[in-house]
Specification:
This protein is an all-alpha fold and 344 residues long. The chain has twelve helices and two strands; from the N terminus they run αααααααββααααα.
Length: 344
């Protein structure tokens, strides 16, 4: 957009004028009401010329210079109206009438294309040329927009095809990734490997707690065998002292039993989590085979299969390591899922 047009002195001055101000209503019957339509028409057309010239950089400089010419002519008449002083025009208002006559003649000249001396006035030609430039610019912009729209639709179509392909591949990859995650979780909870390679020995959480439990049992056995030596009781002492020593023995033995029970409980929890994650891994590994065996248009069966897979992953079942008194076993097995698919 060419902003230099509005920055010119003549255009800046022109933009300060309004038709209402130029009518000089304060003069009453001697206002310039007779040229209201002339001022309104010419100002509107000049405003439109300025707007078109600003919006289209392809307009020739010579054509823009002609706009300045007509704006300067308008400014001359506007300045005469603004500077008119009725007190300085006592003789039948000849000055006022002259201003009105000059404006009317100018208006006639710009529309008929010449003045009384047959001098050419190109106002309408300039206006029409600018309108044609504007129309051509709009047509060019529309063609470019249509081309961009077509390219965008083509790009969107290709993008949708790529996204559809990526979603299909990502779905399979995601299932496999989550199966790997559940596998790693199961190995974290329980993983006992003894190999022939050098230093190949891995322990999961369950094995660590089992080892701790065995150490505690061994320590407890030593404590029981040597308790009289470690915590001797002298029955010759006062009954209160003997009672304290007995209570001390009972507390130590009880605490040892609690530690053993706690360690075994942690072992069972880790084995339970290992079993559940292994079950989830097997479910996801089998999911691709199940889903490919179904008709692509059988949405109901696919949704039902997804529900069963979700249950197999998110519902907590029994593994045999933790008591199921407080919960029921509602996790479907892989065999149950196979039967479910075959029934469909």
């Amino acid at each position: 957009m060419d902003k230099t047009i509005r920055e010119s002195v003549s255009v800046t001055q022109f933009l300060t004028y309004t038709v209402t101000d130029l009518l000089r209503q304060e003069l009453g019957v001697k206002s310039f009401q007779e040229v209201e339509h002339i001022l309104s028409d010419t100002k509107r057309m000049l405003d439109e010329m300025i707007s078109i010239a600003e919006s289209h950089e392809s307009i020739p400089i010579g054509l823009k210079n002609l706009i300045f010419t007509y704006i300067n002519e308008f400014n001359v008449f506007a300045a005469e109206i603004k500077n008119y002083n009725i007190d300085n025009d006592p003789s039948n208002f000849q000055l006022r009438n002259r201003i009105i006559t000059n404006i009317q003649n100018w208006y006639l000249n710009i529309f008929q294309g010449f003045d009384n001396n047959r001098n050419i006035n190109n106002f309408l030609q300039v206006y029409n040329s600018l309108k044609i430039h504007s129309l051509l610019g709009l047509q060019k912009d529309k063609a470019e927009i249509d081309k961009l729209k077509e390219e965008t639709e083509t790009a969107n179509k290709k993008a949708n095809e790529v996204i559809s392909l990526l979603q299909s591949k990502a779905s399979a990859e995601t299932v496999q990734d989550y199966a790997t995650i559940f596998q790693m979780q199961s190995l974290k909870h329980s993983n006992f490997i003894i190999g022939f390679k050098p230093l190949r020995f891995r322990l999961g959480n369950a094995e660590v707690w089992l080892f701790i439990s065995l150490i505690q049992i061994f320590s407890f056995g030593l404590l029981v065998v040597n308790i009289n030596r470690i915590f001797p009781i002298d029955f010759s002492n006062k009954p209160s002292i003997v009672t304290v020593e007995l209570i001390t023995r009972i507390l130590i033995i009880s605490f040892s039993i609690y530690l053993i029970s706690f360690a075994f409980k942690q072992y069972n929890i880790q084995k339970h989590l290992h079993t559940l994650n292994r079950h989830r891994q097997n479910t996801l590994n089998s999911f691709k085979l199940f889903i490919e065996s179904l008709d692509a248009n059988d949405i109901a069966t696919r949704n039902a299969l997804m529900m069963e897979v979700a249950k197999a992953i998110y519902e907590s079942g029994q593994s045999g390591f933790i008591s199921g008194k407080e919960s029921t076993d509602n996790t479907p097995s892989i065999i149950e899922m196979t039967r479910f698919v075959n029934q469909k």
